[in-house]
Amino acid sequence: MPAKRRRWLALGATLFIFFFVWMWTPWAKYRYHGDGTFTDAGFFGYPRYRVHFSSITLSKAGEYRYHFRGLPNEEMTLLLSMNRDGSYESEKWHELTSLQTSIEAVLTDGRGHEACKAAGTPDSNRDGVWVLTTGFGTAFWHRHCTHVQIRASESYELVLRIRVIDPRSGDIAVTPLLMGGGLELP
């Protein structure tokens, strides 16, 4: 085999190895800074990236602020994850979907631009509905805060406001969760 061809094969093998390592290397945890706990499930994990923020209660009006930076360049979705699972058939599920608690979420970047803004209640059939789902545990999601493009170079602030309280909220707590990335295999 000629020397020139060997060099090209060696270069190709080296690039392949670097690409392979790059694909398998988890997003370095040292890049993420801020409130919440960042996890990376790896290249084949879905969703690959998650940030869990501290839990809040739906039975008390308040404003909750979380600051962070260093997430990967990725589309992320905001979920308000229930601290307990519920079955679609259960009485509790139907109670949760009829709550009249007002929830607002605003995600802004470091320049003050809104990346997403969602407001409404779980009981409405209007544009402002927080939908209860069981895809990744029991959680509320809002269509205005799905597939939000996050940039690694930006800092962000997530503000959650709980306003009108439904007396049925009781001890219901939710954990704000940003998640995205990874390979969604069939």
Account of the 3D structure:
- By secondary structure, this protein is α+β, with helices and mostly antiparallel strands.
- It has one domain (27-180): Jelly Rolls (Sandwich), CATH 2.60.120.
- It has two helices and 13 strands; from the N terminus they run αββββββαβββββββ.
- The strands form two sheets. Strands 2, 3, 4, 6, 9, 10, 11 and 13 form an eight-stranded antiparallel β-sheet that branches.
- The longest helix has 22 residues, at 3-24.
- The chain is elongated, with a radius of gyration of 21 Å.
Categorize the overall geometry: elongated
Helix coverage percent of residues? 10-25%
Low-pLDDT runs of 5+ residues are none
Percentage of residues in strands: 35-45%
Please name the CATH topology: Jelly Rolls
Write down how many β-strands occur, each being a DSSP E stretch of 2 or more residues.
Answer: 13
What CATH architecture do you see? Sandwich
Which class of secondary structure composition applies to the elements?
Answer: alpha+beta
State the end-to-end CA separation. Answer: 43 Å
Q: What are the defining features of this structure?
A:
186 residues; Jelly Rolls; five-stranded antiparallel beta sheet; 2 helices; elongated
